[in-house]
Amino acid sequence: MNRRIFIQSAAIGTLGAPVFSGYSAGSSLLDKIKLLDEVIKQPVLKKELFNSPVIIESVELLRFDNSYLCRVRSTNGAEGLAAGHPFQQRLLDSLFVNRMQPFFIGKDARELDSLIDEMYVGNYKLQGLALWIPLATIEFAILDMLGRIAGKPVGELIGEIHNTEVGVYFPNNNRGRSAGESLERIQGMMDGTSVKALKFKVGGRMRRVNDPNDPPDRSEKLIPMVREAFGNDMVLYVDSNSSYTIDEAVRIGRILEEYRYGFYEEPVPFDEYEETRQVARTLSIPIAGGEQEPSLHQFRWLIASDALQIVQPDQFYFGGMIRSMKVARMAEAFGKTCVPHLSGGGLGYLYLLHFVSAIPNAGPYHEVYRNNRQTGTPVESRTSSLVPGENGKIKVPTGPGLGIEIDPDFVRRHVPVKV
Ligand SMILES: [Mg+2]
Known about the structure:
Distance between the termini: 57 Å
Bound molecules: magnesium ion
Order of helices and strands: HEEEHHHHEHEHEHEHEHEHEHEHEEEHE
CATH superfamily of the largest domain: Enolase-like C-terminal domain
Shape: globular
CATH topology of the largest domain: TIM Barrel
CATH class of the largest domain: Alpha Beta
Number of strands: 15
Strand content: 5-15%
Low-confidence stretches: 1-21
Mean pLDDT: 92
């Protein structure tokens, strides 16, 4: 491949022809950033699917125990329903009810791209989980409503369908055990599944070397042990959750390379951007990151600087599928892949499946918990089992909207949140 990278028309969605003429490897960082700005500006929601306004009549936040649901209704009687974040939403009820709910009433849902931008401009000091989790929840419900109106799954509202099935990896989140005990747990997690990839934790989390969470030599021993136990065909990933300095990250990275690991997530503190870039330049294993990112412009720098090879926006933490699509497109413009982060619990896996269905630069395997149907909101889908099949992939639901029905008895137990 030559050194010249061209922006493909696919990178900017439904437009017919490439808008950008490309740039050379010698382009300045600012030139690359300007080019990514053009990618960010491209619309995501396909307004052309709707020929008349979809005026939002109500937005409700409903709660039962630790379960949150968002229900939106249009003046024409259409309805959308999505599950909120099961662990974080309770901290953010006031923002949802007092700031966001009133903003959306009376707005045309077809303008979702710009409504999200307006929410940001009006609340930029809250950027982070505080702003993005409630807003993402509302977006999921609106997309479900729009999909039901258009008779299309949400993936078709935000892009073309590139993946009708999604390859899965299971994550093992144990730290604080010896390498041997950790391996046993990883083997238990994978026992009897058809899933072809897995991820586990290395380091102590957030630069806590010599922490009880990181017994001495655990990571160094576990990396070869997992490869040996699972053989050459298993795809292996690790996540350090910001554990290392540059030197430590490179030392561990060399072991990962020796044992042919697929990616290395957050090797140094996630917001040490220059350090991340240094590690990426030194190692050949792809560096993954972005689950903590709240900002399109920070992602823009990480991509233009080649600090990350794999971007990992989280549908909840980054403010929904429309904003995450902009990250995937920026990554695609620079030949990078997208492996979105999963917010566990609730319907996180379902949002991930729909988002991945619509991106052309998805990685081969995506995070889903083995017990996703047990810990999540009770749902049924007529078009998918929602669990991996024999090929280790999950079929993306193809029904309208989110393509699922939440158990009506479960929905009825929820009551409106008042703050
Ligand atoms: Mg992670």
